[in-house]
Amino acid sequence: VNFEPSQDQEALLEAVKRFLSEQLPLSRLRLSNGEKAESYWSELAGLGLFGVAASSEQGGMGLDLADETLLFREFGRHLVSPCALATTIGRRLASLTGEPNLAARLMGGESRAALAFEYEPAYGKDAGVFALIDALRAEQILIVSRRQLSLVSRTAFSTRPSEEALDESILIEKGTLDPSASVLTCSDTRLKLDMATLTSAMMVGIAEEALNEAVDYAKERRQFGAAIGSFQSIKHMCADNAVRVDAAWSQTLWAALALREEATDAAKDTAAAAIVADDAARHAAQDNVQVHGGMGFTAECNAHRWVKRRHVLSRLLAHCIDAHAILVIEHKPEIPAELRKKV
Amino acid sequence: MQLRFDEKADAFRAEVRSWLADNTPVQKHIVTPAERRQRAMAWQRSQFNAGWAGVAWPREFGGRGLSLLEQLIWFEEYARSGAPALLRDPLFVGLSHAGPTLILKGTPEQKAFHLPKILRGETLWCQGFSEPQAGSDLASLRCRGTIDGDELVVEGQKIWTSSGDVADFQELLVRTDPAAPRHRGISWIICDMKSPGITVRPIRTMDGDAEFCEVFYDRVRIPLANVVGGLNQGWSVAMATLSFERGTAFIADAAELADKVDALISLCNNAGRDDFLRRAVVLKAEVMSVRAMIYRLVSRNLHTDRPGPEGSMVRLRYSKLLQEVHRLAVAALGDSALFRHRDEHGWVHGYLYSYSQTIGAGTEQIQRNIIGERILGLPRSGAQ
Known about the structure:
The structure holds two protein chains of two kinds. Chain A is an alpha+beta fold. Chain A has helices at residues 7-23, 38-46, 65-77, 83-96, 100-108, 189-220, 232-260, 266-291, 293-296, 303-320, 323-329, 337-340; strands at residues 113-118, 130-133, 140-144, 149-153, 157-159, 172-177, 183-186, 222-223, 226-227. Chain A is built from twelve helices and nine strands. In chain A, α3 (65-77) packs parallel to α6 and α6 packs antiparallel against α7 (232-260). The longest helix of chain A has 32 residues, at 189-220. In chain B, the strands form two sheets. In chain B, strands 1-4-5-8 form a four-stranded mixed β-sheet. Chain B has a four-stranded antiparallel β-sheet with strand order 2-3-7-6, with no helix packed on it. Chain B is an alpha+beta fold. The two termini of chain B are 42 Å apart. The longest helix of chain B is centred in the last third of the chain and has 28 residues, at 274-301. Chain B contains eleven helices and eight strands. At the A-B interface, α6, β9, α7, α8 and α11 of A face α7, α8, α9 and α11 of B.
């Protein structure tokens, strides 16, 4: 057992952290309506970050899910476009389905993949419509569903003029899929679980940064003659989130290692990570708005960004795996089959 | 990074598992404090005889001299075997608190005398920290220790002392310098519970047990040689082990809780309540994350000799979850919760007991202060 990153991992992380803080400060989001991923995409690809788990024969780093998990936590902290998830997982899907050229183009940054999932409207209309996440400059679309993952050309979707999205830092479009389009499909459970784990890692990054912002602000902001972080109402809120973050990161790392080592309970471990990481991000993001008070409600303050991105990733997780069902189905056999369906 | 244990650890685990399978005593139901003491000591004795006591304790004091990792494996297997629950083990203070404190801060004589006895299950320890006027504000304690020759004369009162009525020794905090700033006038001393002048009065608790006591000291004479870590240094001695009080033993608690959560899922299913079931599944995920927190903490602590404040995060999450699991179970039990069934999981009794978990060993509010101030670096409040 060892949860500590190796020296090689530390070195990679250092380089990535430096790049992200120089090139992707959150201030970039204030200037744009829709993520200007263009400027940094080729540089992320140039660092080899979309082929971390690709073998060296494929031109990748030859590392594995644990390294990717460390990386995606950093992506989460910097609100890197969810296209990073789609491209990383899309590359593997292309490779698994015998499309090495497409895999290489995704890894190299010449092609970008974006996420889509079948839109489940609460009001009945829009059946059969997909939500496309930040697909403006994407060439490929990774369609996420609980059954399978599929890769399809962006041109197979006809999209409508975009409505205003909850997370305005990325573009969210509604689109319909041409039924005759050729689709690469992979129903490998492992790929989906890996994707859920990397999404959880991004959630942890979001949770940590939201918590850091709240703590930093609570140390500076003074009311009643004292830093507001000295008041227990604020301090305890932050402490609870520190515990959630620690739990979420511990469980996410556990899931990554369990998947990599093909442990018996890896699916359950991944489901648990998804639940606790989403919970940590939700609480840390919403409490950060509260700690910032009036400032927290403004568009100028970063606090709202964590709330919104967490919401998008939470929907993605829900489309990727049914975490609750996994935890019940894989439960001890004493539960009769008809009861398992209830979750 | 690696989740898997190496071959050496796996071999150790197999050895532990097979010994526990053959030697775990059959659990019987509630007994008097004296019986509880006797039973715990006999069980500790058989662990010691087989070489399983103090897996990570130094060999010179009868321990096995292995790392925290083996200790973790021991506790994991311990919980798995269905051996007597550690959560309310009367030997806990000696094994998981006083013992580690002595290892860290004791004199050679104190270690040589006490540590082997603790490991062999020959002595039972209790804690004398809280006082009626010094609960969460522990540093305001007033129980006096006045130097008289080569002895301290102790005068005052302690409260919430678990197993105080059956203990042999007590880790006792007394004020030895009333003039000093409050954190610097306290000493951590070893008190022989048979000393003349000590009166112990059991207190009945809300779960119906009488496991903790108040202790009165009427000119109790304690040798100065029983001071641990230096006169007036008691605060730092107490803090050295308080923050991760249960240490690796937490993994056994977490494993027991994981079993309870599985039982809870079945219970919610049987109750036909989908809303309860969904909450139970979330609790399961959260309990799993506690195991991951402990693993990561142990992994980080493998190369340091003393635990950091991160233990407070495990403590806080674990105790809240223990309560939530029992509260949901009692809700799912419906009318059945009107009686204290001694069912396999002891839900109703456990529910009542769980109220203590966010109070003892530092309330959840104190744990949050520790996390906020020592981990996040938030400023202390004015009233300190």
